[in-house]
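REQUEST ID: PR-0412
SUBMITTED BY: lab tech R.K.
PRIORITY: routine
TASK: structure prediction, single protein chain
INPUT:
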Amino acid sequence: SCVASTIKLFDKTSGELLQEFSGHINKDYRLECCLDHSDKYVLSGSENSQVYVWDLVEGGCVAKLDHGSVGVVHSLEPHPNKGQLLTAARGTVQVWETEELGEEMEEEKEPTLSSSSVYDSKPHWM
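STATUS: complete
OUTPUT:
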């Protein structure tokens, strides 16, 4: 993710710009981005307490996952082969889980977050 609030996808061999993803807020912090387990979606944290999900090929935003009013969602990590996503913001960690994350995104539905999936602790730097 760039500080200009865009994510740029480049061809590894040629260096050609293949796609740009925007809509999230990234001005002051280092935010992680990644592909989901199916390699169909690009995911990124944002400085507005949300996780943004874009279609890899089309580039359009297909979902926003609300992390609550915690501020910057700086870290995220998808499960390697399941529809699960771990996100972190200011000491709060959430596990997003769906049966099939890809199908949910195509229908523009947000993954369901169970209450047992929220962990809150004071960050080590505070």
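NOTES: The CA atoms of residues 4 and 79 lie 28 Å apart.
REVIEWED BY: pending
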